[in-house]
Design a protein that fits this description.
Elements: H1 10-14, H2 36-62, E1 68-75, H3 81-87, E2 97-101, H4 107-110, H5 116-119, E3 128-132, H6 141-144, H7 150-154, H8 156-169, E4 172-180, H9 183-195, H10 206-210, H11 214-228, E5 235-239, H12 243-260, H13 272-281
Parallel strand pairs: 1-3, 1-4, 2-3, 4-5
Helix pairs in contact: 2-12
Length: 282
């Protein structure tokens, strides 16, 4: 199925402007004309395109180009962040990927400013950086569970905007993806983990406890979208009840960002003809 299967550009279909989290249809496939079969077929085709573009980004980074991509993945438990890392990012050369998963801060991390551990994991030139959770935990879970006073987390929205602006000015293309599943879909996915011994390792009993805070998380995510969607670091809202759709959507967002960089292959840093003569002589 060709790229025209999208009725509008994916960046327009998923941009966070005007999104109301409480009203979101998490089973929808915004902008995509096809069904699951068509989506999975297109995903395979677009993964190859993504791989080729990523190789070009990596090659330029090896030649000193500081530009890079930072993909921020946020979502409730079972929203599919790990699946995107495996099925989307897994299609590119791992040498060109900087991946970081941010859980509960360690004792050492808590001694520093909340952005300290984020700065330590930022992608290098030529890399696609992937954050499985991110600095947004400090205005999401921290807010929901009253871990710091409201005036503390409330000041972080503007601080994060400034932080991301500096990233963009330094050559980072920031893509922020908020993945949303319904409570029923999350229950189904948690149940599947309990039914399969090979999935026990993914189950955390605390995930069930967090379901009691669903409305509070909706409010917290709404504030994130309203206050930190910027021109230099936009949020994209991805309905995630259909895994095939969320993976395809993120693939398209990455392709769009890489195409916008307008990368060419870096020129040779040596005399090609001379090196050919040397090779022929041996």
């Amino acid at each position: 199925m060709p790229k025209s299967a999208w009725s509008v550009p994916v960046t327009s279909a998923l941009h966070a402007d005007g999104v109301k989290v409480a009203d979101l249809d998490t089973n929808a496939t915004p902008g995509f004309r096809g069904d699951k079969k068509a989506g999975e077929l297109l995903l395979e085709q677009r993964r190859e395109v993504l791989s080729g573009l990523q190789e070009r980004l990596y090659a330029n980074g090896r030649s000193g180009d500081p530009r890079n991509i930072l993909l921020v993945l946020q979502g409730m438990d079972t929203a599919g962040k790990g699946g995107i890392v495996r099925h989307v990012i897994g299609s590119v050369d791992p040498q060109g990927v900087d991946h970081a998963a941010f859980g509960v801060p360690t004792a050492a991390e808590r001694k520093h400013h909340y952005l300290w551990r984020i700065r330590n994991k930022l992608p290098r030139g030529g890399q696609i950086g992937v954050f499985d959770r991110s600095h947004y935990e400090d205005v999401l879970v921290v807010r929901v569970h009253d871990l710091v006073p409201p005036d503390v987390w409330g000041a972080r929205y503007d601080e994060i905007n400034r932080f991301e602006r500096k990233l963009a000015e330094a050559g980072t293309t920031v893509i922020k993806v908020a993945l949303f599943v319904s409570p029923d879909e999350q229950r189904k996915r948690l149940a599947q983990r309990l039914e399969r011994p090979d999935k026990y390792w993914k189950f955390n009993p605390a995930d069930i406890d967090e379901r009691a805070f669903w409305p509070a998380y909706q409010d917290a995510y709404q504030a994130v979208l309203d206050r930190t969607t910027t021109d230099h670091a936009p949020w994209y809202v991805v309905p995630a009840d259909r895994k095939w759709y969320s993976r395809l959507a993120v693939t398209e967002l990455l392709i769009d960002a890489l195409e916008r960089l307008n990368l060419d292959w870096p020129p040779a840093q040596f005399d090609v003809a001379e090196q050919q003569r040397r090779l022929d002589a041996r």
